[in-house]
Amino acid sequence: MTNLAEVEVVGVDVGDRQPIFRPTMISPVYMDAVISPNRSLSERGFIVLIGVITLANCASAAVFVAMGAALAPIFLAVDLIAVVVAFLVSYSAARRVERISVTAREVRVVHEAPNGCKLVWESPTAFTRVAVETDDGRAVGLRLMLSGRETPVAQALSPRERGEFAKALEKAIRDARLDRG
To answer: Which of 18, 96, 132, 157 has the most CB atoms less than 10 A away?
Structure first.
């Protein structure tokens, strides 16, 4: 693979107020994976589920009120609110993604959320290792390692998917090392 040219803004010329550009060389990307957690329920399914729970709680509340338990509807409403909050937290977590990129120069892990990005890991490709923790032939853990440091990756994947991702990540790192030459 060949390197691609890119332009980087290095400053602004004070007299003309024009940006100063410098050509840079960037490496090809061997992997740019975006891992996002699976949603537990679609939006339509969520509405149906909340509707069913609401109907069941209303029916239960009517029975309890008829039996003289006037406070029961309050507890049933708290139950419904707890279910809604749990799903909202789940949907919020599903909007966070993990981006893993491998170039000939570096391996980078970034966590992206709607409110911003956070660089979690950055290491030279030449020295980065992939460690796979297995249990009964299933990949239960996947970590990037360098000089005693490590970070878990691909935690949102199932064990089968994590094993396949580990092989693809190792191949991308191996190919990137070969390109460095």
So the answer is: 157
Cα 136 to Cα 56: distance, rounded to the nearest angstrom: 42
CATH 3.30.750.24 matches 29-35+98-180: no
Write the burial class of residue 4 (CB in 10 Å: 0-12 exposed, 13-18 middle, 19+ buried).
exposed
For residue 77, how many C-alpha atoms fall within 13 Å in the half-sphere facing its CB?
A: 6
Q: Taking the complete model, does pTM exceed 0.70, yes or no?
A: no
Give the C-alpha separation, 134 to 136, whole Å.
Answer: 7
Residue 180: pLDDT band with limits 50, 70, 90: low
Cα angle value 99/103/104 (rounded, 5°)? 160
Q: For the chain, what are the domain ranges?
A: 29-35+98-180, 43-94
CB 11 within 8 A of CB 19: yes
> In the sheet that 149-152 helps form, which strands lie side by side, from edge to edge?
129-135, 138-146, 149-152
Question: Is the pLDDT assigned to residue 10 strictly greater than 70?
Answer: no
